[in-house]
Amino acid sequence: MSSASPVFANGKNMHRFWIKFDVRFGGQTYGVLLGCGVTANNFDEAMKMCETVVFRGSPVPRVLSVIEDVDLASLDQKHVIPNIADPGRPGVWFPGYNADPLPLAFGVRPGGNWLQRLWPGGDGRKR
User: Which one, of 74, 88, 95, 75, lies nearest residue 40 by Cα?
Assistant: First the structure.
């Protein structure tokens, strides 16, 4: 499956959105200086997820650009890709808000290889 393939959840064809907001250094950026990745049924639903999950009720910055059905290979390979949650699940995947709750229980920010950050061996075994 290509990184640009459609996403199906609960039998529905969903879309991966990459949304860039007008955020600037010095102010609150909410972790979206590079953009925000969301899997949703449509753009309105994606924006509602951003409003609720990323901006948590604060005013949502102006949208600069939107890519619908974004090809993950086109995203920043050094900062975005290593830190995304599952883009195949509905929700905000960058920053990695739709990640499993286990990393949160350990105080580790979601997204990326959280297991490796907890245990440098990557599988919890001492080396």
Answer: 88
pLDDT tens-digit readout, 24-79: 765 667 788 899 999 999 999 999 999 988 888 788 899 999 999 999 999 999 98
> What is the three-class DSSP state of 4?
coil
DSSP type of residue 55: S
- Rounded mean pLDDT, 87-98: 85
- The whole-angstrom separation of Cα 4 and Cα 58 is 31
The C-alpha atoms of residue 109 and residue 91 are separated, in whole angstroms, by 16
For the whole model, what pTM was predicted? 0.69
Quote the Cα angle for 74-104-68, to 5°.
25
Of the candidates 57, 62, 43, 53, which has an alpha carbon nearest to the alpha carbon of residue 85?
Answer: 53
Could you tell me the end-to-end alpha-carbon distance of the chain, in angstroms, rounded to an integer? 35
